[in-house]
Sequence to fold (886 residues):
Amino acid sequence: MIGRRWRAVLAVLALLPLAAAPLSRAQDQVRVRAQVDRTEMGEGEDLRLTIEIIGPSLDRVGPPDMSVLDDFVVSGGPSVSTRFQWINGVSTSSKTYTYSLTPTRTGKSTIPSLGVLVAGSTYRTQSIDIGVLPRGAVRSPFGSPPARPGRPAGPRSPASPPGTPRGGSAPPAALRVRTEVDPRTAYVGQQITLKVVLSTQTEVLNIGYQETPTFPGFWTEEIKLPDQLEVRRVPIDGEMWSEITLMKRALFPTSAGPLTVPPIGWQIQVRRRSSDPLESFFFTPTETVTRRTDPVTVTALPLPVAGRPAGFSGAVGEFSLQVTADRTSSRVNDAVGLKVRVAGEGSLGAVDAPAIAELADFKRFDPKVTSSTSLQNDRFRSEKAWDYVVIPLAPGAQMVPPVSFSYFDPKAGQYRTLTSRPLSIQVARGDDAGSPALPTVAQSDVRLLRRDIHYLKMASGGLRDRSRPLFRSPLFAVLLLLPLAADLSLWSWVRMRDTSPQAARSRRERRARAAARRRLRQARRCMKPATARTFYASVAQAMTDYVGDRFDSAGAGLTHQRIEELLAARGAPEDVRKALHRCVEACDFARFAPASSGEEEMRRTLRAAEETLVGLERTLPR
Amino acid sequence: MRRRRGPGAGSGAALLMAMWLAASPPLATAARAGAPEDLFEKGNTAFEAGQYEEAAASYEKILGYGLHDPRVLYNLGNAYFKLGRLGDSILQYERALRLSPGDRETRDNLDLARGQIRDRVTEPDLQYPIRVVKESIERLPPDPLAIAFFFLYTGTAGLLGGLIVSRSWVRRRLLGYGALLAGLLALTAGAALLYKMRQMSAEVAIVLQDKVDVRSGPGEENTILFTVHEGTRMELRNRLEPWMQVSLPNGLSGWVPASAVEKV
Fold:
């Protein structure tokens, strides 16, 4: 936009020398000329340098070599324009390069001779001397400006300051633009207010940016200025100046370190004093001057690591925290609105909801987030609110635990933590007290809110080393062997006892009666005339074997005589001995004369034998 | 005959009790005028004040006296847990569980600590009844089990002794059944005790370093098979100083530097 405008201006500008140049000389000669818009200027102002190349053909023209500049730096350009002309079959071309130059020092400065390469040959411009006055110095009006600029259209609506301090007598270029930054040192995220102020002693018609300013390293927020710019009158060095604030920005450093606010270029259209009364009468003679602000370096400090709270939100500024419920009493399943609001000076853009502890007896839904920003006395203010809907699940006095919000206070240089008061909500039972049916209760599992280890153990009853379990002790093994050994020795003792002769005898004695009984049972089975012989033999054997067993001698070899002797020796009574004798004799007799014995006889014999045995058992000592 | 057996069993039990009491050495440490108890109190106070380093130091000092009380190990495990030393805390909980296997708090905390470590090693699943039996045996305290086994064993032996000596048929029959029953019970208790002995003397180690490479052989030049992290429990299988062969429950095995792990 600006470039195009400038090109139009330069087209007009380029015509002037062309018209003046004698055509005959212009036919085959290349001419190079340098021109400035003034030869005296103030420090911090811009100078316009125009380099014009005129020749028959300008196909191969390089830009001028600006590297030889010592006293100036190129602050803008070049803008290039070209023209052709045909007169009587002769063509003439001109090419102009226009630069903005900023002086690097005050006093007498020089734009040296600049070389231009045209079709392989170098042509040189003349050198120009410029007087650079220090800031604030009174300057004389500078020489005739080379051109009248067109209508500069700035981004801002025209501001019309009401007249200049000293009417039309003030030099039209008595303009200064400066940047004010407050503070120069700030923490990351802390607001820095940038202000661009124009001081003027001349009437300003229009103001615009040269280019849209950018602020690398900052997050910016525009501070709106009033539509009608405010003009203040301030005395500077005994003179009255008008001051206009052109721009305000709230800058927030996004990273730590030195940061530069770059220079901002301004185009200012001012009323020019004209010597031509006709021109003054019919037109408003204006000129456009360019001013740049100085770069400003600010220092952004990182947020301190020490003392940073665990739940630090990242907000920098000064804030307040409010936690409110829309009512303090409710019923089960009746929603309650819970609002967490953080507001204050600073930015809250990236701040998350302050953590609300897990609510055991409430069901909580995701919050609705609302945020707004405003500017108050050039300070950026934010407000962010989280609206929760919580539904009480159980009756009683339910507590919403405190909510904490941490931020960094750059004024104090330390972190602050705000904690709300716990909210108490009285929850009544559901709405079904009057109905006869029991209310349905929405049961939920007991939820584990968070886990932790069990607590310490106490040493009641003293400490004891338990590292050696019982089974590791050798004594335990020995003790296990003891019963085994006892059983084994018991067994071997019993066995030894049973195998000795005496044990055998006593065992025979013990078994005598059982053997005799067995024989008698055998005999009873053959108590028939056909087997009478076997019967009597069995009974006789039962008797003799009994005696033999009792007296530890073989029953087969016992005679009646011997039996008598043994029994008498053991002190058996006379009648028992007689009965035995009779019984054995009867058996012997019947064995050899079986025909005489009937069944009745056998039964009598058996009974007699039994009685005799009982008698013997009773009378013989054990 | 009976008299001869009786005193044998009785004196054995008495001896056992005496041994149990003697094996636990409060008598030995009582000479230090209750210093371990004071240290324990000191540790607990420091723990409550959040000074976990101091608490751990106190508990460790008690262990330094040779007083391996499961409560000290448990509290030490808690202190390590709070300090974020998961491997150490798991090690102490494991040690506490060995000494008092039925303790629920220790088991819970061990489970919680195991839930925080990086490695998840799935153990082979056991059938329901086998798992229940295994777990209940694992939770039995070793000393009462040993005493129960001892009494059952001695009882069986006594009944067998009676059987050897007795002549009466009825008495022998009663003694026989009794001996059979007691014998079966003693066998069960003995099997449980054997399992317990194996479990308690199992060579198990816990990884204490953040990350340990398990290699295919004892030496840095061997291939890295897999990596384990702090708190993982491994079985020790072999030793070749300064390397140890370890295996995981899922069957993976390899060699690690002995300094990276600690035996339970």
